[in-house]
Design brief:
Layout lengths: L1 H10 L15 H6 L7 H26 L35 E4 L6 E5 L4 H18 L4 H17 L1 H12 L3 H27 L2 E3 L9 E9 L2 E5 L5 H14 L3 E5 L5 H17 L7 E4 L6 H5 L7 E4 L2 H11 L6 E4 L5 E4 L6 H13 L11 E4 L4 H12 L7 H4 L14 H13 L3 E4 L3 E2 L9 E2 L2 E4 L6 H4 L6 E6 L3 H8 L7 E5 L3 H10 L4 E4 L4 H4 L12 E2 L4 H7 L1 E9 L20 H16 L3 H11 L3
Parallel strand pairs: 5-6, 5-8, 6-7, 8-9, 10-11, 10-17, 11-16, 15-16, 17-18
Antiparallel strand pairs: 1-2, 3-4, 4-20, 9-19, 12-15, 13-14
Helix pairs in contact: 5-7, 5-9, 6-7, 6-9, 7-8, 7-20, 8-9, 12-13, 21-22
């Protein structure tokens, strides 16, 4: 009754106010009221207030149906306060006695347990289960998918400490690194998809071809692909697992996520968070699957006929294997392979100490294990010596350790593994032999408290030139590399001198120079007077060119990349106009020559560049 009263009230010209009780409600009393019961201006104001109130109430009522709901999942005992594990004699994910994945904390060497790797039959079962769940999920409304994401968002915000602790244990990072690189970017992605995902995926109207197709409506529909896969790296175990899930499920897909063996332990907890949100919203948790397997089993996933799209985040050598495997079933790929990102610092850069703070975060975030981390700082002559002095004083004070054991006295955590320490030491030593100066660090660090942990000294190496191997190879570690440039042109040349081309930064004050560097940097993304903020703006596509991969995730482009882009043409006025084949070109042809003249005239009428050619086309259509 209340909704009917409100509706009739609005369409009746607003002759009365909105203070009508249910008991006294009588439509006949409305007509009995004098026309002048309210002045017209006041009546209009009351009408607006009532309209606004109705709109607000409707939105609140609608939102209440699709708000996030609370739920809980078990937190691993290793992440709970007071837990103490056993330090492994030789920390490694591979066991000499069985096929299990050994999980341990790289900051301390403490064992976290084991994870059973998947076999081909496990992969088959996961894909089959996801496909069955996806058939129903594809029929859900945008509101239902948003409810799932709101539920997931609520749980993440309520459980930040647990999520960060698990990430710190399994990857060795600090809690600040986890907050910025794991949680912040994940909730930002959810926020973007909640606000803009539907708009990106609803059918998009396109221009029709005039004049021949003027009676048609044409559009692109973004439909689910089915079951997609994501093979993600270990450096951000929470975000890298959830990010493709957010995009793919909102687009209506099921998804199989293969995480790295290095972070197999945390992936179990993180996937339970996603499955818990699905269950809390009344959906089948089989929609999302997380598998762990050794490299020799992975091709069974990447060449599987049940996978419609693959997102790969990792190294170039592995990407070649993934692409070759996916080519067997012609599965499309989005490949992100890291980079050798340059930050160009121009002479007119203001407030260099503040810029240095941004550079420190860009270099040492997650101990340099960051695909868009700053791997090269390229500075022009006036600022170069100042920058060297500032960075040297800052880097010398960085403290290594386990954030979960040492509290707040840690700046940098551990590196995921010591497997590449010899390579890093060789790159530094080689650069020094060729004239570079290593002012700080440059070697592995045996932590006095955590001798089984994987630590590399925060390193500052300066006077590096493009010909040095350390300037060409991704180090993916806590190494700050400074390269002098003679001019803006030289700085651009140095920035473009590697085979990588993911992201970049430029700092300065002259807009013309900033625009030039941004334009001439050959990479997929650039931040101006900042570091990697393009990724915190999830409306932007993420990806690189050259040796950093191809394809994009994030933004509209990322959402649409896991869809079937279906082109659809329908009659605009089906009862009035539709396509009919003229008799002169209808099969079987009666006169081929007349048919040729007719079709030739059709082309000239539609596409003639002059009026005379168009008139000639009309003449041919008429048989002249």
């Amino acid at each position: 009754m209340a909704m009917r009263v409100s509706f009739d009230f609005f369409v009746s010209g607003f002759k009365v106010g909105c203070s009508v009780s249910r008991d006294s409600l009588s439509f006949s009393t409305f007509d009995a009221l004098p026309q002048s019961s309210l002045p017209s201006g006041q009546s209009f104001l009351v009408s607006l207030v009532c309209a606004f109130a109705s709109y607000v109430f409707f939105r609140l009522w609608r939102a209440s149906r699709f708000n996030g709901v609370p739920y809980s999942v078990p937190v691993p005992e290793q992440a709970q306060e007071g837990w103490k594990g056993e330090v492994m004699a030789n920390p490694s994910i591979k066991s000499t006695s069985n096929y299990l994945i050994q999980c341990y904390a790289p900051a301390t060497g403490v064992s976290l347990g084991t994870v059973a790797p998947a076999y081909p039959e496990d992969i088959d079962a996961a894909i089959k289960a996801s496909a069955a769940a996806q058939e129903q999920w594809a029929k859900t409304s945008w509101d239902e998918r948003r409810k799932f994401l709101r539920t997931l968002l609520k749980h993440i915000l309520d459980n930040q400490d647990n999520i960060a602790t698990v990430a710190c244990l399994d990857s060795g990072k600090t809690k600040i690194d986890a907050a910025l690189g794991e949680i912040l970017v994940t909730v930002e992605k959810i926020k973007y998809v909640l606000g803009h995902g539907e708009k990106a995926l609803v059918p998009e109207q396109r221009k029709t071809s005039w004049p021949f197709m003027c009676y048609k409506k044409v559009e692109v529909r973004y439909e689910p692909l089915g079951v997609v896969a994501a093979l993600v790296s270990w450096n951000y175990p929470f975000h890298n697992l959830l990010s493709p899930i957010i995009s793919s499920t909102f687009a209506g897909n099921g998804i199989i996520v293969k995480g790295s063996e290095q972070t197999a332990w945390s992936s179990q907890y993180y996937i339970s968070i996603v499955k818990g949100a699905l269950v809390a919203c009344g959906h089948n948790p089989d929609l999302v699957q997380s598998i762990m397997c050794w490299p020799e089993i992975a091709p069974h996933l990447t060449s599987h006929s049940g996978i419609s799209h693959i997102t790969f985040i990792g190294s170039r050598p592995v990407a070649h294997h993934v692409a070759a495997s996916a080519s067997k079933t012609l599965t499309p790929l989005c490949i992100e392979l890291g980079g050798k990102d340059a930050a160009v610092i121009l002479d007119d850069t203001r407030n260099l100490p503040s810029v240095a703070s941004t550079l420190m975060r860009g270099v040492f975030q997650s101990c340099g294990q960051n695909c868009v981390g700053i791997e090269r700082i390229v500075a022009t002559p006036k600022v170069y010596p100042q920058l060297v002095a500032i960075m040297e004083s800052r880097i010398a004070k960085l403290r290594l350790g386990s954030i979960l054991d040492d509290g707040t006295g840690v700046d940098c955590g551990a590196v995921i593994s010591d497997a590449h320490f010899s390579r890093l030491e060789e790159l530094v030593a080689d650069a020094v032999k060729q004239g570079a100066r290593c002012l700080i660090g440059g070697r592995r660090h045996i932590h006095p408290k955590y001798p089984k942990g994987h630590y590399f000294e925060p390193t500052l190496i300066v006077d590096v030139t493009p010909s040095m191997a350390i300037a060409q190879n991704e180090v993916f570690g806590p190494i700050c590399l400074l390269m002098p440039a003679t001019s803006v042109s030289d700085a651009i040349s140095i920035a473009n001198s590697t085979e990588y081309a993911l992201g970049g930064s430029v700092f300065g004050g002259n807009k013309k120079d900033l625009d030039r560097v941004t334009r001439e940097m050959r990479c997929g993304m650039v931040s101006v007077n900042d570091f990697a903020v393009y990724y915190l703006n999830q409306s932007l596509p993420f990806g690189g060119v050259k040796g950093s991969g191809y394809g994009r995730f994030a933004g509209e482009e990322g959402l649409r990349s896991v869809c079937n882009l279906k082109a659809v043409a329908v009659d605009r006025f089906p009862r009035i106009a539709s396509t009919a084949i003229p008799g002169v070109v209808d099969y079987p042809l009666k006169d081929g020559e007349k048919g040729w003249r007719f079709t030739k005239g059709l082309v000239e009428l539609g596409y003639g560049e002059t009026v005379m050619r168009k008139l000639g086309g009309i003449a041919k259509l008429m048989g002249f």
